[in-house]
Amino acid sequence: MIMGNESRRLLPLVIFLFSIQLRVSSAFGICEHTFFDGYKLYNFSLASPLPSFPHGVLSEDGFYKVAVNGTVLWFQLCGGMIFNHDPPRCVECSGCGGPSRCGMECSALVTIRAGGYHVCITIGQVSSTDVSILDKLNPFKGVILRMSSSGKEHNCSLSVSMLCDSTGAQGPDLMEKLGTCEYAATLRHPSACATITSIHGNGFGWFGNLLIIVICLFGAYMVAGTVYRHFFLGVHGIEAIPDLDFWVSLPHRTQIYASSLVRQFRGPSASQGGSYSQVSAKLRMICRDWFSVIRSPIEHTHLSYFN
Fold it and tell me: Membrane-spanning regions, if any (predicted)?
């Protein structure tokens, strides 16, 4: 009989501890957020333990509380609220546990004094929690956690701006009412600081971007020239491609000028009699030849378009 009585006494404690474990475990999934910016991947793990904060951004009391002008805001980040002390006292607490367990089945509620009584309105549910970046231009600034609750009478929400502060936790000490049933709060916490988990060096940088632009311009030139020659000049088939003869002969021309370039620079080193003036003259001749190669398709295209 004694063992049976002790088991019955320990059963509520076991259930309570099990519920805490479930809420803490679910917090890790809710409070994970990643943000990709360029080649950097920013990771926010709000519920991960820190040396001074073993539960991350979750309040060790089981809830956060802010009171302003007779209105009291209760909330817990990344999970449901747990009250071991100072629970909300409300005539009604629908959607959040009822009057006997008010606050135990939601993530945020607000207490308003009306007609001499305290009325609690649920403004956040764990299932409707969403984490997003606070400032995309500055990912290190922090994140914003938004929770909402929909009911027959109220559609409410709470947005908590969590600012990165590596020195310690501060707040929340302010509460704002943004709409009929929309509230906002701000706090500072080390868990809101981003960590770079991966830095990708893929891509070609500015040179790759320049190359893409050149290719796009070349493609636009080919398409526009082909369309113009086909519809306005009546050229059909493969001949509609602008400067077809030049593009067909380009590999052969490139080979010839590459060989010429090799011979030009090999001559002075072999003879040992070359001078700076000779090299300069040869370079000018090569540049003049290359300029004539580049200029010929442009002049040919100009004449073919307007003749």
Answer: 203-224
Beta bridge partners of 35: 42
Which backbone phi and psi does 5 adopt, to 5 degrees? -65, -40
Q: Which of 104, 157, 164 is nearest to 130 (CA)?
A: 157
For residue range 235-251, list pLDDT tens digits in order: 888 888 888 788 888 88
Closest CA to 191 of 173, 165, 170, 212: 165
Domain identity same for 194 and 269: no
Model pTM?
A: 0.57
Spell out the alpha helix ranges (H) of 189-243.
205-231
Which domain covers residue 210, as residue numbers? 205-306
Q: Decide which of 199, 231, 257 is a domain's last residue.
A: 199
Half-sphere exposure of 105 (CA within 13 A, CB side): 11
Q: Do 164 and 260 belong together in one domain?
A: no
In this structure, are 58 and 128 located in the same domain? yes
Specify the pLDDT at position 307: 45
Place of tokens 């707040």: 171
| 202 CA to centre of own chain | 18
